[in-house]
Amino acid sequence: MCGDLASFGMLVFAIEHRDGSASTTQIAGKMDNWMSYQRPTSQKVDVTYGLRSTQLKFRVKEVMATLDVLQHLNSGNAPRNVLDDSSQPRPSTFSLSSLKSRLKLCDSEGNGLVFVAGHSFGGATALLSLADVPKSFAGGLILDPWMFPLPKPLNITSIRSPTLIINSEQFSKWSENFAALTAFIRNEENMQKQNSDVCNSVRLATILGTGHQNQSDFPVLMHPLGNKIKRLSYPKDPKLALLLNQRMMLAFIRQRLINLRIPSEIEEDKEIFDYGAAALKEHIEWFSEQVDK
User: Fold this and answer.
1) Which residues in 256-282 are b (16+ Cβ under 10 Å) and which e?
2) What is the pLDDT of residues 207-239, one digit of tens each?
3) Residues in contact with 94: Cβ distance below 8 Å, sequence separation at least 6, in sequence order
4) pTM recorded for the entire structure
5) What is the pairing mode between strands 24-26 and 34-36?
6) What is the pLDDT of residues 112-167, one digit of tens each?
7) DSSP output for 145-198
8) For labeling, which of 4, 71, 89, 195 is most exposed (least CB within 10 Å)?
């Protein structure tokens, strides 16, 4: 998905989290410094929540640190690129200094033009980042957010940036997570009614016939084995699932940033957000429709 967005002329920064939630991560240039996945010491809910909520806060700090790096890059104060090290197997030939004065990070009023996006645990990270630093972002793209590690009770400060949440059908059928997500959305709607300054919407769509893995290219790569591996076997063709995610994300970003290189076949893709678009009824279900059922 990151590569897809970058192919349309956007600069995409992918954070390699070092909170212990990644399967494994290595600090570049330090061959003996690996961090493995950290499991809860107990299956008790309070122990698991304690670990994951701590990791979530750490992840949000990493997002904020990334924003700081963007500011430094734009000012010409580029940090050392560890991949430039000739001792690396494939040293980078890209100069970070080339980004000086080329990143439009905010508008004339100081409102951010950066989008924050995340999948699963990353979705929770993006939601909390949007709430903690509301003016830093132009919007949020949230894929299958895992609601468990978020603050409880869910009293996040209202999100002031437009936010699109895209769920797989598998995640929308996970009743506990979906209940927490919809409670959050209803809270946002109430905040907008009570506060005229909160004018940005949080919208939730479900892509039918898809699973959690369909928001990555893994099912596409493993498609020949999909029917043999239960967790990769979903009704929707994996390439179509990726395309639908891509179309929704691009259309959402384009509402805020108009100078994007968009292929002609989806240049005018406004119908993607049309609740009544007949051509998309078999693929996309909006939260309002799910409530009406």
Assistant:
1) eeeeeebeeeeeebeebbeeeeeebee
2) 999 999 998 888 888 766 655 566 667 888 888
3) 81
4) 0.85
5) antiparallel
6) 889 999 999 999 999 999 988 767 898 999 999 999 999 876 655 567 788 999 99
7) ---TTS-SS--PPPP-S-EEEEEEHHHHT-HHHHHHHHHHHHHHHHHHHH-TT-
8) 89
